[in-house]
Design goal:
212 residues, 16% strand, binds zinc ion
Length: 212
């Protein structure tokens, strides 16, 4: 087994950040992405604060410790680093976190209504409907803890009047969950244009294993 390659991980975080813009999930400096670095010490790579993705290079991705202190990097970490760290504390199964501000997921956050588990492609990633975390300032650990209470054991949560956060076993999975949620949010909007009661799947009874 090869040693974990920090540079490769930085490049991957940047690639997914750029993809989040291509997919219309983020604009300008919106959103942030992090991963848990494998190893004995608790270390995390996270996008820096206030830097546009298309002007970012892999070296701009910041290495932080469990308190959010910079271990390696020339920038401050994202202002929501404490939310990421709270999530990693609460969810040992999470090895990557993707925060975006996608328009269709945000529609439901603004309305204050969960994104229901209507699409099988979403529920296999999210493990159920996507709940809504009420609006609050998101630059502190208390927000992260409250958000984890709302998210429970599922893999996605909408932040009302703000955006979406997903967790995954790796970055690819967390990103795919984000895309699946945004797609389902769009379908739900269309479905609700014609009915108040779209058909909702019951994730627990679908019989999917935890492993994708
Ligand atoms: Zn945000």
């Amino acid at each position: 087994m090869t040693a974990f390659d920090l540079d490769q991980a930085r490049a991957s975080i940047l690639a997914y950040s750029l993809r989040s813009m291509e997919y219309g999930l983020n604009f300008n400096t919106q959103g942030n992405i992090s991963i848990r670095v494998p190893g004995e010490q608790e270390r995390f790579l996270i996008t820096p604060t206030d830097l546009e993705y298309d002007r970012m290079s892999p070296e701009d991705i910041v290495l932080v410790d469990a308190r959010g202190e910079v271990v390696e990097g020339r920038h401050e970490p994202s202002s929501e680093v404490t939310v990421h760290l709270a999530t990693y504390r609460r969810r040992p199964d999470a090895h990557a976190i993707v925060h975006t501000e996608p328009p269709y997921a945000n529609v439901w956050g603004v309305i204050g209504e969960p994104i229901r588990g209507t699409l099988v492609n979403m529920v296999i990633y999210t493990k159920g409907e996507v709940p809504i975390m009420p609006f609050a300032q998101s630059n502190n650990a208390a927000f992260g803890d409250a958000m984890c209470d709302v998210m429970g054991d599922t893999n996605a949560v909408v932040w009302a009047n703000h955006g979406l956060l997903t967790v995954g076993a790796d970055l690819r999975q967390a990103f795919k969950t984000t895309v699946a949620v945004e797609s389902a949010a769009k379908v739900q909007l269309g479905a609700r244009a014609v009915t108040d009661s779209p058909i909702v799947l019951d994730y627990a009874s679908l019989g999917f294993s935890d492993a994708l």
